[in-house]
Amino acid sequence: DDVLDFADPDTAADDRKVRLQKVLKPGSRFLYRYDFGDGWDHAIVVEKMETIESEPWGAAQVIDGARACPPEDVGGPHGYGAFLNALCNDPNSEEADHYRNWVGPGFDAELFDLRAANATLLRMASNRWGNR
């Protein structure tokens, strides 16, 4: 099973020096943890890798996804579960009203915007992936 998990810091490669394209190949799967405090873990599968000469800083593309990103600072997976439970199962409750006011209008947990996801990656690449 070709899964890269959260490694021991003493044996892990320095992510400031090693690029993903050097350690991954098509079919590789790895876990990405966003926000160590909240524990958002993402399973990522590398479908294809290719060199694009016109993209000196590299490029990435999302080809599929599901559901909206949880609101920032919702409280990790447990907090997001409570958020969804209130909005979906008890939409007229005071708690659901609080969440709607907090998240703002137009939040749709079922919406996945492929174009927006790829636009975000394009902005990151054009910013040299944050390495300016």
UniProtKB/TrEMBL annotation:
Gene3D superfamilies the UniProt entry points to: MM3350-like (3.10.290.30)
Plasmid pRiA4b Orf3-like domain: residues covered: 6-115
InterPro entries given in the database record: MM3350-like_sf, Plasmid_pRiA4b_Orf3-like
Pfam families membership: PRiA4_ORF3 (PF07929)
Protein name: Plasmid pRiA4b Orf3-like domain-containing protein
